[in-house]
TrEMBL record:
The chain crosses the membrane at residues 84-103, 167-188, 200-218, 230-251, 263-283, 289-310, 331-351. It is a multi-pass membrane protein. It comes from Coptis chinensis. One of its GO terms (cellular component) is membrane. The lineage of its organism: Eukaryota, Viridiplantae, Streptophyta, Embryophyta, Tracheophyta. Pfam families: HlyIII. Keywords: Membrane, Metal-binding, Transmembrane, Transmembrane helix, Zinc. Zn(2+) binds at H184, H329, H333. One of its GO terms (biological process) is response to sucrose. This is Heptahelical transmembrane protein 2. It is found in: Membrane. GO terms for molecular function: metal ion binding; signaling receptor activity.
Length: 360
């Protein structure tokens, strides 16, 4: 009798679960008949071929969602949520820096604390030129004064050093980060959107790489316009070539992951040539070496991020465990933002050095 009761209890549980599944299925069918969209996250094997990119991420995929729902999914949890927010957060950081650059005086103080403190030339100056009192004196500014990208500074009362090259990098970085966020958010809408947005993503990466060359080359070769034009033209042509190459539909597929990574790394490391030239040209100027040290840290960040991107670690080690958080692309995004901010610091150092240097 006891066994019969136990068997009957198990059957009841099974019936209740079956009923719930049937009711859920019926609700979805009714919504479909009424023309309402049913939000469902799919497993990897249920995806169409054009959406299959990483076989180690097994679940929580949005597939062919309407544009409105895909856009609003920025606030829901799926395997692209952190991919969107890691770069959207980076975009917000650079946007804040851009807003601060418009301020002529520190207006972000709150109870004695100024955000501008961290971007002040007064704090960089002792580090940049500890043994050159004359140049250090030129760089002294009011405590807490922010670095303004959009104004100009008169050197020795005769010449103005433009700040627009720094602005070019900030805009390029923001463009890359927002393109990446939009791609991860909206590429699930359709095959056409998938192809378009991943191309946009690669174009954004190329844009940031090219724009990152502008400030250091401009300021390092400010008094050597021929070399400045040569290096800036070369990296621009290389960037255009990269964008045109990556517009080919076939190169957007997972099969060419290594090729894309190699192309971006080649673009980045092409900066070794102008960097070496700048060191030789300005040997003995400590800010050049400090800026170069920042750039080396940036290179480590980018190379490490690409390593995660290509190897698909850690999800390769335990498929399905990192679907929502912790997979390689999210880690790659974090390293990209870290590298961009490090390059921003290098740009401030070399820009201030040029402003404190004698005229050409």
């Amino acid at each position: 009798m006891e066994e019969v009761r136990m068997g009957g209890g198990a059957n009841n549980i099974f019936r209740r679960k079956s009923k719930k599944v049937k009711n859920s299925w019926k609700k979805e069918e009714m919504k479909k008949k009424e023309g309402l969209f049913v939000k469902r996250l799919l497993k990897y094997e249920a995806l169409p071929d054009y959406m299959k990119d990483n076989e180690f991420i097994l679940d929580h995929y949005r597939c062919e969602w309407p544009l409105k729902h895909a856009f609003l999914s920025v606030f829901s949890l799926h395997n692209e949520t952190l991919n969107v927010w890691t770069h959207l957060g980076g975009f917000m950081v650079f946007f804040i820096l851009t807003v601060l650059s418009f301020m002529e005086t520190t207006t972000s103080e709150f109870q004695g604390f100024s955000f501008g403190f961290f971007f002040s030339r007064s704090h960089l100056a002792p580090l940049m030129m500890p043994n050159n009192s004359a140049l250090s004196q030129d760089l002294k500014v009011t405590h807490g004064q922010q670095v303004l990208i959009f104004d100009t500074k008169r050197v020795s009362g005769k010449e103005e050093i433009p700040r627009w090259p720094c602005f070019v990098f900030v805009v390029g970085a923001m463009g890359c980060l927002v393109c990446s966020s939009l791609s991860h958010l909206l590429a699930c809408h359709s095959r056409r959107f998938n192809l378009f947005f991943w191309r946009l993503d690669y174009a954004g990466i190329s844009l940031m790489i090219v724009s990152s060359f502008v400030p250091p080359i401009y300021y390092a070769f400010y008094c050597h316009p021929n070399f400045r034009s040569l290096y800036l033209t070369s990296i621009t042509v290389l960037g255009i070539f990269a964008i045109i190459t990556l517009l080919a539909p076939g190169l957007s597929t997972a099969r060419f992951r290594y090729f894309r990574a190699s192309l971006f790394l080649a673009m980045g490391f092409s900066g070794v040539i102008p960097a070496t030239h700048a060191v030789v040209l300005h040997w003995g100027h400590k800010p050049i070496f400090i800026s170069l040290a920042y750039e080396l840290v940036m290179a480590v960040f980018y190379a490490t991020g690409v390593g995660f991107y290509v190897s698909r670690i850690p999800e390769r080690w335990k498929p399905g465990a990192f679907d929502i958080a912790g997979h390689s692309h999210q880690i790659f995004h974090v390293f990209v933002v870290a590298g961009a901010l490090t390059h921003y610091a290098a740009t401030l150092v070399i820009m201030d050095w040029r402003m404190g240097s004698p005229m050409c």
